Amino acid sequence: MFRVLLWKEIREHLMTFRFAAALVTTFMLVVISVWVLGEDYMRRRDLANTLSQTSMELATKVFVPSQIRPVVQRPPSALSIFAMGEDVHLGDAAEIRRWSVPTSAEDNMTENKLLASMQPFDLSAIIVVAVSLFGVLLSYDSFSGERERGTLRLLCAFPQKRGKIFAVKFLAGSLVLALPLLFSLICALLILQFVHGIGFSQEEWPAIALMFFSSMLYGAFFVAVGLVSSALVTRSSTSLALGLLFWTVLVILLPSAGNGLASSLHPLLNPEEISMFVQESSHEVRNKVRDFRSKNNLELSSYGDNGIEGESPFYYDGLPLWFRDHMRYIGYHEQLQQQRAEQIWNLDSKHLARKREQYGLSTAINSVSPAYQFRTVINSLAGTDYTSYADFMEQCRRYRRTLMDDFRSKGLFDRHINRFFSRWELSDMQSDEQVDERNKEILELYLAGKMLGPEDRWEPLPKDYAPSFSYQGGGPGIKAALWPLGSIVLMTTVVFCIGFIAFTRYDVR
Amino acid sequence: MIPIAKHTMLQSLKDAKFLFLSCLVILAFVVNAFVYSENYGSSFAKWQEAVQVNSSELEQKMGNLQLFAIHYQKMYKPPSAAAFIADGGERELPDTWTVSAFVNMEPEKTIRGNKMLPLLGRFDWGFIVGTLMTLLAFLVSYDAVCGEKQDGTLRHILACPVSRIELFVGKYLGLLAILLLVLILGIAANLAVMLLLGSIPLTEGILWAMGWAFALSVFCLSLTLLFGMLISSLVSHPPVSMVILLVVWILITVAIPGIARLLGEQAVSVMSEFETSREIKAAEKEVMDNASDEAKMQHRDPFHKDFPLRAEMWRSMMAAAQRILDRSNETRLRQFEIVNAFASISPSSLLNSSLQEVVATGAPGFRALKSAASLYQQQLFDFTTRRDAMDPETPHLVYAHYTFTDWGVFSGKPVEPGSYPRAEDLWRAGGLPQEQSQPVWQLVIFLVLNLNMALAAFIALVRYDPR
Q1: Of B21, B247, B274, the CB nearest to A108
Q2: Measuring CA to CA, which residue among B107, B116, B117 is closest to residue B363?
Q3: For A167, B134, B186, B187, which has the most beta carbons within 10 A of its beta carbon?
Q4: What's the predicted TM-score (pTM) here?
């Protein structure tokens, strides 16, 4: 009997105009979005490759370790075709410098920052809005409509418990809603496979399956919402109004609340503190360097001061005349700047922790909305949520530490400070005569127009001189997705129970 | 005509759908006032602080005109007090331009709160009217004609001495009147809360913007209403027209803006920042290579005392770089505007983009910032040239190459406080640009669309079979 009822319900749904509209609309929107975003993904993937290669190329033209300043690029995840997530406004690259610890990423691949304010039109957006609305539309007249037509009495006349009838309605609606989803997703995968040639890896398939499952669950939640609004009132037009009201609140209004509330409940620390410290410590370093210079009576060329200001990696290629003094000066300065970077990072991380708390609060407030929870699931499955961005930044910082440790283990900062900044050797210039001789040589080359650049005199450093960065993508965050997925299940159960109770009290006349 | 309008109004007022959603709309207006009052208060404070820091940095450079001229100032876009009308995604848009007397650089985002906070929907008037109230308009109009047919009342009405045009106009006016009622109640609640909180200054410019926003909203609502009536007179069952209208609603509020973005990105290709910097380097190298040997020689020797050739070379290098920067910003802006143009097939997007035009947020706001930046650079340059002309001891070669200049080519006298141009003066109170734009042609488009839609809906009603 259960099966007969289920089949009847499904067949009825399949014949409705609503179902046809849901099928056609979902299919068209998904195909357009996946087609274009697939293309966009390929562009981003190629760009990420080019960018990391260019960064490598630049690295090969480096003559001294102080010039090593790699740009670390985060490659896009293939699943971002379905959910662009937070990636669209969090950055994707970081430059690793000695004098600063990376706190937030830069936008390297976003071509047009002006478009960042627009919501991306991806699969998750389509499901969040369209599929949920169709869920409500499929089921809003389940009881009130049948009552109006007079068939509900008939249905309840069968020797069936009302619970079973309710469950049949819910199950039939959810299964029918899954059809357009399944159909569009399969077409989307076929397009990606055969038009764009994008294949997915072993670990991405379970994520895709889970994406489909969670979309189904999300749709089922709204089928249950439709059933509730149908079981609460007697007229189908009123239940439609109620269903749309629930839908508008849950999908459109609620997810906008979190940010504002979180920023006023848990405000950020004053960023002035950081900028003050940055300025003060910069002055302090300058003063210390000046003291060091006068105390040790260093002979420096006129540009000695200017050359090491700012964050550019210093590379000494001047005349050997002032070389020895310059090296002492630069070495001292380098040490101060590295200390300063750590101090600034300590301050930064305090602020970062506060921001993370605010983000957590906003997420907690938003999590009452199933639409937000669903986005969280999809984004963490696609690896485009905040967590994977934070993971990337952590990797950048770890890489910076590895790089610095490598320099330190090579003894570049203490014993061979000259090797760190210049190709000149201290041992070449022990006596004043040697220095004079070298200066004369260089001057002659210069006057003859032969001294063009370091590449004419020196070999660049070997490619594997310093450890390179490789991004350890965490893969799809299945574990992170389970928690919000569980809360969607919970919400669906709650709504289901409410609907069930309402239906048991429903007057079928 | 009037009795039909009255009757329609009363019927809608009794309707549960209408009551639910209109309460929601009014609530949304109230929330809007709270959210944007809070936002404006805090971002205005941040802006003031940033401007303060910038001017105190500038004051340190006033001892020397040359240092003053090459100093990179930050030009911040003041937060728009009218953002509650159209937010325009200000949270993510660049708001700062680095300007010296010689160059204005890439725009960037510097005043921002927490970048980590998820990108969520906006809550401005454009959203409330373009998304919520268009849904309301569809909900009141989906059964305007086919519902009466189903109830059997359409035949009765047509049996009375009422022409179909009277029926049409009566229905239209009645429905529009209740939508306007909700809109006016909402705006009144909005204004009341804003006056209570008092952080948004209701200047003349903002009141004008509100007037425009009201007019545009009315046209937009009337258009969606007419479309609802059109669909209602094309089908015979209310549920069918409901489904069609909801699909159309999804299309106009979510799908069309989304697809427009995808299409716009394909239609206009934009140089990435990486490519831009590479082109700048190439252009500078080209200028350098084409320069005369004498100029090159002067460039290489820092102690050469004869400047004019070098000045000429560096000026053309800077001009080439500026051209490329300007072009790259221009193509970005064009892409943004083409996305908006594509999206304008949807009335709710058209409403949004015209509201942005009125209050100068979004693309129009960015364009205002861009022109203000180049204007300010010009002012600084003119100021420097003027000051230099007063100094008899220099060769009057006002030029620099990014961060450094040749000492002695132009005046290095101190600058008196208060004599130089300030970036803040380029904006009016409330963060509006000096010239407030009037979205006249958007209004005309809305009008033409309304007339066409009215004609279509009327024809559909005339051909409607009431049996």
Answers
A1: B274
A2: B107
A3: B134
A4: 0.86
A108: which chain B residues are within 8 Å (Cβ-Cβ)? Answer: 272-274
Q: Is residue B467 part of a domain?
A: no
Residue B67, classified by CB atoms within 10 Å of its CB into exposed (0-12), middle (13-18) or buried (19+), is middle
Residue of B nearest to A239 (CA): B17
**pLDDT, tens digit, for every residue of A186-220?**
999 999 999 988 888 888 899 999 999 999 999 99
Q: How far is A80 from chain B (nearest CA, A)?
A: 15
Q: What residues in B contact A117, CB-CB < 8 Å?
A: 88-93, 362
Distance from CA of A488 to the nearest CA of B (A): 19
Which one-letter DSSP state was computed for residue A198?
Answer: -
Q: What is the chain A residue with the closest CA to B278?
A: A54
| Boundaries of every domain in chain A | 272-367+407-465
- CA–CA–CA angle B446, B449, B455 (5° rounding): 140
* Residue A324: per-residue pLDDT: 74
Best of B48, B120, B138 to disrupt the A interface by mutation (most A CBs within 10 Å)? B120
Q: Is B340 exposed, middle or buried (0-12, 13-18, 19+ CB in 10 A)?
A: buried
Domains identified in chain B, total number:
1
CA distance A470 to chain B (A): 21
Residue B252's domain spans which residues? Answer: 2-111+120-462
Q: Which residues of chain B have pLDDT under 70?
A: 111-115, 118-121, 294-307, 402-408
> Which residues in chain A are contacts of B239 at CB distance < 8 A?
17-18, 141
Encode pLDDT of A269-279 as tens digits: 877 788 889 88
What letter represents residue A99's amino acid?
W
